[in-house]
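Changelog-linked ticket: succinic acid example.
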Amino acid sequence: MDIDEALPLLGGLSPAQFMRRHWHKKPLLIRQAVPGMQPLLDRGELFALAEREEVESRLIVRKGEDWTLRRGPLARRSLPKISQPGWTVLVQGVDLHDDAVHALLAPFRFVPEARLDDLMISWASDGGGVGPHFDSYDVFLLQAQGRRRWRIGRLADPQLQPDVPLKILTNFEPEQEWVLEPGDMLYLPPGWAHDGVAEGECMTYSVGFRSPQRTELVKEVMVRTLEALEPDEDEPIYRDPKQPATGTPGAVPAALQAFAADAVEQLLKDRELLHVALGEYLSEPKPQVWFDPGEEQPLDGGLVLDRRTRMLYDERHVYINGESWRAGGRDAKLMRKLADERALDARDWARASEEARELLTRWADDGWLHPRGAD
Ligand code: SIN
Ligand code: CO
């Protein structure tokens, strides 16, 4: 992708300009970001997804000031009537279940994939929505069908309504308001209060980017780091030849505390261990994802990553679906191309080393990638 090319998707800004001016900073309304936008799934297909066990879905019904939330799977017959106003079904991770929906994410690949969460689709009856709230996500809200009125404002007061099963702001102070038509898109950084209400039946696609929290990252990275940790035969043990006799045997010796602190600091100084743990975590598929093992088919005509595959890399490693490989030289270049473009062509395959081909074949066997053109 040319990050300096002006795009209709970004209202005539280039990805570079958008990231500088708006990303994580301020909202942007883009009329006709996707001209001719048509929903890729109809209402029935979306509801069928919401019925599935492995799909994350929610039903939110509003009656006056009363909100109810039900988590999926959502049986079709348990949903309110289409003609009943004020309800919405939200389906997370639709990109994992549908290739065409997954393809909608491609134009957003000017944002690092490590930040990408998923594409959510919501269907709402007239007046439906999730109420005024804020998210810790950067989100592109693309109107796919029908009209939705968005009101947004800076978060003046983060207090949430008590005794409501959803996170609804007590004091929402909208500053701007627009009605979005199919193809229009609204970008919101995290922490902006927003409320989208359907005007007639409507569908909205949300491309969401997660901002990991510090504690969550520390936990995930540490768990993986500790799993990878093996005792070393000649590593130092605690020695205390200078330990004097003590009259307070219950007290932990300061030298032992210092020994432990030093050991932990040494571990944390190992940036490679930390980067591997982080890469594995960030490339971990969502818990409900599984892959269908692939049939043995030649990859010499090129290959594409499965829509569910998450592939990332750093200076020394490639990460795919929660696993890591050390890669250098020509093979590293090839794997980085695969992660960036999600595909390799026949020429790439012809240039790949025997080891790289073996690895790619293994990933194909696992269903992580497929021969090009094989659907
Ligand atoms: C929706 O699609 O109704 C909700 C999206 C959001 O506000 O985050
Ligand atoms: Co939101």
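Closing comment: Example verified and attached. The chain has nine helices and 15 strands. The radius of gyration is 25 Å.
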